[in-house]
Design brief:
The complex is a heterodimer of chains A (about 375) and B (about 375). Chain A contains six helices and 29 strands. Chain A has about 375 residues and is an alpha/beta fold. Chain B is of the alpha/beta class and about 375 residues long. Chain B is globular and about 65 Å long. Classes of the chains: A alpha/beta (about 375), B alpha/beta (about 375). Chains A and B meet through helix 5 of A and helix 8 and helix 13 of B.
């Protein structure tokens, strides 16, 4: 069809109704933001590219242009940090694309018999629908922004402990004495925590994000999570404040959304990453010189440990413990030392299942760990 | 108003008329409010004969080249549902779907029955349309809105090739078979089609032409089918607009091996040769057993007695072969808030360059129905 510019805009806005309805039905702000991104990007392309480049748009062009827009929407989503689950984002985009095809080829020509010769313009009805879509999007975005947790930038050093009881985003700065998070939808980004009993203590909360945080000199756990769902990414934990300090401990959170610990560097603590009765995806972390075990997936947890690097742990590199179900793949365990005392379960074991635990392992690299891969106390290891 | 409460008249009973009729019906105008004046009760009859004459099996139009008011569902969708395969849809998306003539005609027959065409049809040739206050007198009645869809004025045939001057001459759009030695006059789409038809029938072909054929896509540039291209077309000065129409009317046929390969093969076998129009051509024509005039149609309002009479008596503005029309295919001097006179089909090219297509017929009908329904 040979669209006029107005026809392109009206057709795009009116055919976005199904995607917008789905976005609103999901009752998530990211869905509204994503729908706005899809439509906004499409309008920019319409005005700046398509109208000039395509005097006539053949039907088959819908496929490559759809793929192009999908790529741009994904890039925009990352750039604007729209926290949409990828699967749902693709579904929403697919609804939008299919809606545009259905409306453009069937609904509009049916409702308005002059649709093609009018270059996609929809007349008064189309103008009204387009306006409603715009108002809905602007209203939705405004509401999303209005209820978005405030962002607080810390400058310099703040004396803690800092207690967070409301949704917010905390960026930058140094906090002495620890941070206690007692609310959902809290994000810490680029925050350094010095000291405190637990460096960062999260309890009874969901959707908590710890991005690129640094924790040093805590006296118990660097990051301590209880009954909470957290996403910990890119953390740095070092210089523990005593011999009993653990790196990341996520426990008793099985009723919360799944947690993730990824791309963290943890050095010199007693145990690097510990879970108890939780569902945690542990991936891409570096655990160096743990004075006890490197990674422990324990106590009826349902965890995965993938692409981690555990170097120089004492006794066990990665342990699946106590009725837990673990997937342990693509990890590198090197230099696991045998603990004194001659206990075989701590004899420099790279990967171990202990006490009714079930571990599924694959593609792990084990270097200089004399205990190899072992199962104890009615545990099983499958490959 | 006319005696039976009819408000709308359609002059002509071919495909353009049926397209206009379906649009009127789609917008809620009842059969009792419409009179179709024509010489053929079957709106496909003339076109069907011409298509059969040149052995046309596939439409040159695409999926939405049908006579129903709404483009969806198009003929590709219908065929996909009928055959239970998505292949027509994929072909349509790639602009490679051309419905069969049989499917097109069957759909037209369905529309004729479904819309009530026969209830509105009146077997009567209209020779004169007389503008009166608030409408037009024709066919013994007065109508507020008249759509003229009389089609091509006739088959173009050079006088020296017309019977009885040349008794063995036939027009490409008249029923005919192929003799063993055939002269085909012309260099456009019909001529190219006839070259292939005659070669396929085993004939030896002599192509008589004044110029080398222009090879270009069959349809005019697609922006001319929508407001995007039409807005600029309507904004041009009359001279420029006429030049554009002349350029678009030049005889041509598409490039492609489907056309070239059979001709190349026949040339190699000595079964196809080209003769320039002139004295040799006359001699060649006499020497052939059959002459086929693939010379298209008469063109220009002056060749259509009804339009010529209207132009002369109403003093309508013209430019060359074309009656000057408003962008919505109405005649400005005879259209106002109370009455409408629109031209559909080939005579409406001043408003829509592809007026001789189904899309063109619908374009004129849309403009017509907007006015007709506004004054109900």
């Amino acid at each position: 069809m040979s669209y006029t510019l107005r026809g392109r805009v009206e057709s795009r806005l009116a055919s976005a109704v199904p995607a917008l309805v789905v976005a609103l039905a999901l009752q998530r702000w990211w869905a509204v933001e994503l729908a706005a991104l899809m439509i906004g990007l499409g309008l920019v392309l319409d005005a700046a590219v398509y109208h000039r480049a395509l005097a006539y748009q053949a039907g088959w062009l819908a496929a490559p242009l759809g793929a192009l827009e999908l790529g741009l929407v994904y890039g925009g989503m990352r750039l604007l940090e729209i926290m949409a689950p990828l699967g749902w984002a693709v579904v929403l985009y697919a609804v939008g694309w299919l809606g545009a095809q259905l409306f453009g080829h069937a609904v509009f020509p049916r409702l308005r018999i002059e649709y093609a010769e009018e270059g996609g313009e929809l007349g008064t009805f189309g103008t009204i629908v387009a306006a409603v879509v715009c108002v809905t999007l602007v209203g939705g975005l405004g509401a999303a922004r209005a209820v978005r947790p405030p962002t607080i930038h810390l400058h310099g050093t703040v004396q803690g402990p800092l207690v967070i009881r409301h949704a917010q985003t905390l960026v930058g700065g140094v906090v002495r004495g620890g941070i206690l998070i007692r609310a959902s939808h809290v994000t810490l980004r680029d925050v350094t925590v010095i000291g405190g009993e637990n460096g960062i203590d999260v309890a009874h909360a969901s959707h908590v994000m710890l991005e690129d945080v640094r924790v040093v000199r805590s006296s118990m756990d660097a990051i301590h999570v209880r009954d909470a769902g957290v996403m910990i990414d890119g953390c740095s934990i070092a210089d523990p404040g005593g011999p009993w300090v653990q790196g990341v401990d996520v426990s008793y959170s099985i009723g919360r959304p799944m947690s993730m610990v990824s791309d963290c560097t943890i050095a010199g603590v007693r145990e690097g990453i510990v879970t108890h009765s939780a569902a945690v995806d542990v991936r891409g972390n570096h655990v160096l010189g743990a004075t006890l075990r490197g990674i422990v997936l324990g106590e009826m947890s349902m965890d995965t440990a993938t692409h981690n690097e555990v170097v120089g742990a004492n006794g066990v590199g990665i342990l699946c413990l106590d009725h837990s179900t673990c997937t342990i793949e693509h990890n590198t365990i090197a230099g696991t030392r045998a603990a004194p005392g001659g206990d075989l379960s701590r004899a420099g074991v790279a990967i171990e299942a202990h006490y009714f635990a079930q571990a599924r392992i694959a593609h792990n690299t084990i270097v200089a760990s004399p205990g190899g891969i072992r199962a104890f106390d009615q545990s099983t290891i499958s490959r | 108003m006319s005696r039976g409460g009819e408000r709308c008249a359609i002059v002509g009973s071919g495909l353009a008329a049926l397209a206009g009729y379906t649009v009127l019906r789609h917008r809620g105008v009842r059969p009792e409010e419409i009179v179709v004046f024509g010489t053929h009760g079957d709106p496909t009859e003339v076109w069907r004969t011409r298509a059969a004459s040149i052995r046309q099996r596939r439409m040159r139009s695409e999926s939405d080249g049908h006579l129903a008011a709404a483009a969806f569902p198009g003929l590709a969708v219908r065929e996909a549902l009928h055959r239970g395969t998505p292949a027509p849809l994929f072909a349509s998306v790639a602009n490679r779907y051309h419905p069969s003539v049989d499917a097109f005609l069957a759909h037209a027959d369905t529309l004729r029955a479904r819309t009530g065409w026969d209830r509105s049809f009146r077997l009567q040739r209209i020779d004169r349309i007389t503008p009166v206050a608030g409408g037009f007198e024709l066919g013994g009645g007065t109508f507020a809105h008249v759509l003229v869809a009389t089609g091509h004025p006739g088959l173009a045939r050079p006088p020296e090739l017309a019977p009885p001057a040349l008794a063995h001459a036939v027009h490409a759009y008249e029923p005919h078979d192929y003799a063993s030695r055939v002269a085909i006059v012309g260099a456009g789409m019909a001529a190219a089609t006839e070259w292939l038809n005659a070669l396929a029938a085993g004939s030896e072909v002599v192509s008589i032409r004044r110029r080398e054929p222009l090879r270009r896509p069959l349809n005019i540039p697609r922006p001319f089918f929508s407001k995007r291209g039409l807005a600029a077309f309507h904004a041009t000065l009359p001279e420029r607009r006429a030049a554009t129409l002349r350029e678009l009317s030049a005889p041509s046929y598409p490039a492609g091996a489907g056309w070239d390969d059979p001709i190349d093969a026949a040339m190699a076998d000595g079964r196809f040769r080209v003769v320039r129009a002139g004295s040799d051509a006359a001699q060649t024509s006499q020497a052939c057993e059959q002459v086929i005039c693939a010379t298209g149609f008469e063109h220009g309002w002056i060749r259509d007695p009804l339009l010529a009479d209207l132009v002369e008596r109403a003093g309508l503005a013209t430019h060359g072969d074309w009656i000057v029309l408003a962008p919505d295919s109405t005649i400005p001097d005879l259209t106002d808030e109370t009455r409408t006179l629109s031209i559909a089909g080939v005579a409406g090219r001043w408003a829509f360059p592809a007026a001789d297509t189904i899309a063109g017929a619908k374009y004129a009908a849309h403009g017509f129905v907007r006015r007709a329904c506004r004054t109900r």
